[in-house]
Amino acid sequence: MHLARLTLVASAAAAAVALILPFLDSPLIGDRNGLTADAWPAAVLLAVTGVAALLGDRREGFPVAAVPAAAIINGAALVFSVAKLLDALEAADALHGLGAAAAVGVGAWALVAAASIGLAGAALAASRTVR
């Protein structure tokens, strides 16, 4: 399988795992994972390119017309995941302002990492053949 396709599939799988991990930990409001924090659209975007990576000739990268589409989709997932990370950071700061303990969970960071890997995979998809 082409490295870009492996990277895109791994990115989609990592995003799915990130959704079940905590995004915000606080005794006041409890744990919020990616599903309750509404971070699932980023995982859906990454899943689109992950599924596309499983289709077609897996020994080659994406067709020339599909590379910009994959880059745009994964770029949108990265922007959305960074926004959800900033949202978790702001929520933790607001809870600290109320005197409650709060911390940003590993899920928010994992989703940003998964989206970054997906964007790298979209860039690698421009290479057509396995070396």
How do the helices and strands line up, and which of them pair or pack?
Layout: H1 3-20, E1 22-25, E2 32-33, H2 40-54, H3 66-97, E3 103-104, H4 106-124
Antiparallel strand pairs: 1-2, 1-3
Helix pairs in contact: 1-2, 1-4, 2-3, 2-4, 3-4
Taken in chain order, the helices and strands follow as HEEHHEH
Strand order of the largest sheet: 2-1-3
For the biggest sheet, the summary is:
3 strands, antiparallel
Oligomer: single chain
Percent helix: 55-70%
Count of helix runs: 4
For the secondary structure, the number of strands is 3
pLDDT below 50 for ≥5 consecutive residues: which ranges? none
Structural notes for this entry:
A hairpin with a 6-residue loop joins strand 1 (22-25) and strand 2. The longest helix has 32 residues, at 66-97. The protein has helices spanning 3-20, 40-54, 66-97, 106-124; strands at residues 22-25, 32-33, 103-104. The mean pLDDT is 90. 64% of the residues lie in helices and 6% in strands. The chain is elongated. Strands 2-1-3 form a three-stranded antiparallel sheet.
